[in-house]
Structures are given as C-alpha cells and as structure tokens.
C-alpha cells in the first residue's frame, strides 16, 4: 500500500497586480485526503515573500503545511521534486477539502498608459489602458485586480523558506542578516526598532529587482504611488499565458480641458555679492529656467482616479507630445506639459536698491543686508489671449510683489546658492506666484523686492 499522500488540484481564482511587479495570488485547492488526513500540492512558487503564504481551509481547522524536496528517478534520469504537504486532523481522513491558498511574490506587472485626443472648444477624449506583463504562470479566464498604490511590505526582499530555494539554506541569514539579529533580540528592543523605522514603503521601479530581466526596466516615476489609499481597477476575466503581454482598455471618457502657459523662474547665485573691497569680482545671478511652457489642464470628472503613467497627446492623427500623467484623484486637477511656447517670451533683470553694512549681528558675526528688486517682463506674441502662471523662486526673503503676486517664504535651500557667505538661519527661500491673462500682443511687467544677509 502506497504511503504517498493524495494530490489536490489547484486553480488560480484571482490575481491582484501592483505596478512594481509584485502581485497577490489567490488559488483554490480541491481534493480528497488520504487515510492519514494528508494531501500534497505539487507546485511551489519560488519567489514567495516571507510571511505571505497562507493555506486557509473553507471548513475545519487550519492545516499544517510542510515543504518537502526529494530526488526521484524518471526514465533513468534523476529529477528534483518539490511538494507542499497539508496535514489535517485525523478526523478529516478521506474527506474532501477545499483550501484557499494565498501568497505574495513577483511575476506580474501592469503599466497604465493614456491617450488624449484634443478636440475643438476645449474638449478631449481620454483613454486609459493597462499594459500587463505576465512572467508568472498561465492565467485561464482569471479575474484580475490592477492596483493603484503600493502597499508596505517590510520583508518583500526576503524569500519564504517554504519556497525551498536551494541557494538559501537560511533565507533570513542569507538575504537580510540584520533581520536575523532583530529576531534574536528581546521584544522590547524589537518594538523600539519598529518605532524608529520611517513610515511608508519604498516604491521600486527596476525590473531587475524581480529577478527576471525579461520584464524590462521601469522608470522610478512609473513605479507606483505610495502616498494615497489603494484603488482597484477590476478586470472580470483575463486569459494570458506566461511570457505574454496584453493591453487592456480601462477608461474612456469625454473631458473638458483648457490651455495654460507657465513660466518658472529660478534664480541661483554663483557666489553672492560681497561688501566693497572684500572681493574683486561681481557675483552674477543665473536663471536656472527661462522657458514658457504650453500645458493643458484637466479636472478629473470620471469615477476613477488617474494613476501615474505616460500620456500620448494627439490632435486627430497629429502627435503633439508624450508626457507624464501624474496621479489625479477624482475631482483633482492635473497639468500635462506639451512643449515650450516660442511665441510667449519672458525676461528677468535684477538691480540692487540698498546695501546696509553691519545691519545685523548673528552668532557673533556681522552681516550686511542686501536689498534688490527684480523685474519680470513677459509678452504674448500669439494671436489669441492666454492664461499665464508665473512662478519666481529665489534665495532670500521676499518683501513685496506687484500685481497681487502671492509670496511664500520657506527654509533655506542649497539650490539657490553656490559658496553661500551668509547664515542659513537668516536666509530663506521665497516663491512668488502671479496668475495673469495676456491679450494678443500684450506685454506685462512685474516687480518684486527681496533681501538677504551676507558677510
């Protein structure tokens, strides 16, 4: 009489796919137990994440799961065979069981892509599709959930010992020795370390992290969003063999949009102006950006969020641009750059209006106060009126801005300076924003006043 346990048939009933290339598999195992109340499952996923494999009987107590590996001879060849053995209470002997199996691991990824067809009178047709990559297993009419957002899996890079990966004699010690040390300390120390750990998970984008280069690299900006709650795009059924890819339509809607222009001016100083006689050269300012961008702006009026992905913008069959659609909640606003506007031009000039030596003493050092005035001039060469948003960022504290410019002052930023000769505590970062309407051929001049302290 054979002592080989009975085998359960296994079918994938759902896959939950994340943008970072990991997914949750949900499977159902069905069959009759042997006289010892045991049954086996032949397939053991090799990439299961530590702590995510669970076998849940639909009735009765949970089973003990034993991962086994043995060498068998078939047609004069030796082969390695892996099995999961489910051991139930003896009262379940020769009874039929159904067990739900879940585990989290790599193998499936989805990438959202968009097409925006711009039409007359401020209307566009927005379409979203999911490009799905399957390197896991054959899916035969399986429901699929595509997730917006990335959950926090602390031990995602540690393979479960139930996977029986030969290279990992001790998965914890081999993959993350620091975790092994954590498990050895007291519960008090463990709690302290968990409290010290930053909240939130890291969004990853490289295909190499999955151990499968065939999935290809993915830019970090498309890896997912970890800041918002999870949202599911539900696909009722998909048939996709391992190694295949698919493009699945998800959203199709008519949307209102408007054209908008933006000019972002960032002033940076290579060396700051110093007091007379302390330096022999003049410190120039540099405009890090001096381009007016043509963008489109939309409010998400659909009943689903728009997740981060590449967007192709077209006007009939003419491609206008491909850019990044950033995450946009229902009711939220998104702006998508199209191109640099050659017929809307801006210039910036700066002049010093006052210099006060020894204006303030800080940390036993005297600092001079430099007061300056910036002038931004912008002209619309287009034949129609435009909406323009101007943002001016600079190192220093803004005091006033013409034409209702909105001033925001934040902490010192290194990007504003090179060889800064002031005190960080005395110098902030200022952002000034104007919202304008420019008629055809119109020129507008904006001014702002600001100061900073230097040695």
Could you give a quick summary of the protein structure above?
With 455 residues, the chain is mainly beta. Helices cover 5% and strands 54% of the residues.
SSE layout:
Blueprint (H helix, E strand, L loop, with lengths): L5 E2 L1 E9 L4 E11 L5 E4 L12 E4 L6 E11 L2 E11 L8 E11 L1 E11 L4 E12 L4 E10 L22 H5 L1 H8 L2 H10 L34 E10 L4 E26 L14 E3 L4 E8 L9 E7 L2 E8 L7 E8 L3 E19 L2 E16 L5 E10 L1 E5 L4 E5 L6 E2 L10 E10 L4 E12 L1
Parallel strand pairs: 1-4, 2-11, 9-16, 13-21, 13-24
Antiparallel strand pairs: 2-3, 3-8, 4-7, 5-8, 6-7, 9-10, 10-13, 11-12, 13-14, 13-15, 15-18, 16-17, 19-20, 20-26, 21-25, 22-26, 23-25
Keywords:
3 helices; 5% helix; six-stranded mixed β-sheet
Structural commentary:
- The chain is mainly β and 455 residues long.
- The chain has a domain at 256-454.
- Helices cover 5% and strands 54% of the residues.
- The protein has helices spanning 171-175, 177-184, 187-196, and strands at residues 6-7, 9-17, 22-32, 38-41, 54-57, 64-74, 77-87, 96-106, 108-118, 123-134, 139-148, 231-240, 245-270, 285-287, 292-299, 309-315, 318-325, 333-340, 344-362, 365-380, 386-395, 397-401, 406-410, 417-418, 429-438, 443-454.
- Strands 9, 10, 13, 14, 15, 16, 17, 18, 21, 23, 24 and 25 form a twelve-stranded mixed β-sheet that branches. A six-stranded mixed β-sheet has the order 5-8-3-2-11-12, with no helix packed on it.
- Strand 2 and strand 3 form a beta hairpin.
- The radius of gyration is 31 Å and the shape is elongated.
- The model is unreliable at 167-214 and 223-228 (pLDDT under 50).
């Amino acid at each position: 009489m054979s002592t080989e346990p009975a085998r359960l048939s296994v079918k994938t009933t759902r896959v939950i796919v994340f943008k970072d290339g990991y997914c949750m598999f949900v499977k159902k195992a069905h069959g009759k137990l042997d006289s010892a109340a045991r049954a086996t499952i032949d397939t053991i996923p090799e990439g299961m994440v530590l702590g995510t494999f669970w076998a849940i009987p639909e009735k009765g107590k949970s089973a003990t799961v034993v991962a086994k590996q043995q060498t068998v001879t078939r047609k004069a060849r030796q082969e390695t065979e892996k099995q999961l053995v489910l051991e139930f209470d003896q009262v379940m002997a020769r009874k039929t069981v159904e067990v739900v199996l879940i585990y989290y691991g790599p193998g499936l990824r989805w990438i959202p892509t968009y097409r925006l067809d711009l039409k007359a009178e401020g209307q566009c047709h927005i379409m979203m599709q999911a490009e799905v990559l399957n390197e896991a297993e054959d899916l035969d009419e399986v429901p699929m959930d595509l997730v917006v957002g990335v959950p926090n899996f602390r031990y995602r890079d540690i393979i479960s010992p139930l996977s029986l990966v030969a290279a990992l004699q001790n998965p914890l010690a081999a993959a993350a020795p620091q975790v092994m040390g954590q498990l050895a300390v007291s519960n008090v120390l463990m709690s302290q370390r968990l409290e010290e750990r930053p909240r939130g998970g890291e969004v990853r984008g490289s295909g190499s992290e999955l151990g499968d280069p065939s999935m290809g690299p993915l830019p970090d900006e498309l890896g997912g969003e970890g800041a918002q709650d999870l949202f599911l795009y539900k696909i009722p059924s998909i048939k996709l063999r391992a190694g295949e890819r698919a493009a699945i339509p998800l959203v199709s809607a008519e949307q209102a949009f408007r054209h908008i222009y933006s000019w972002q001016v960032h002033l940076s100083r290579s060396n700051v102006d110093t007091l007379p006689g302390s330096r022999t050269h003049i410190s120039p300012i540099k405009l890090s950006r001096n381009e007016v961008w043509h963008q489109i702006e939309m409010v998400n009026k659909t009943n689903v969020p728009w997740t981060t992905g590449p967007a192709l913008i077209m006007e009939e069959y003419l491609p206008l641009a491909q850019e990044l659609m950033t995450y946009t909640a229902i009711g939220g606003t998104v702006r998508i750059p199209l191109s640099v506007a050659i017929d809307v031009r801006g210039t910036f000039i700066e002049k010093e209006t006052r210099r006060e030596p020894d204006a303030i003493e800080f940390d036993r050092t005297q600092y001079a106060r430099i007061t300056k005035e910036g002038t931004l001039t912008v002209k619309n060469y287009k034949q129609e009126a435009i909406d323009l948003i101007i943002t001016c960022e600079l190192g220093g504290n803004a005091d006033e801005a013409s034409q209702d410019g909105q001033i925001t002052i934040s902490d010192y930023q290194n990007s504003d300076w090179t060889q800064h000769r002031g005190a960080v505590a005395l110098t902030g970062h200022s952002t000034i924003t104007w919202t304008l309407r420019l008629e055809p051929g119109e020129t507008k001049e904006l001014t702002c006043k600001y100061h900073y302290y230097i040695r």
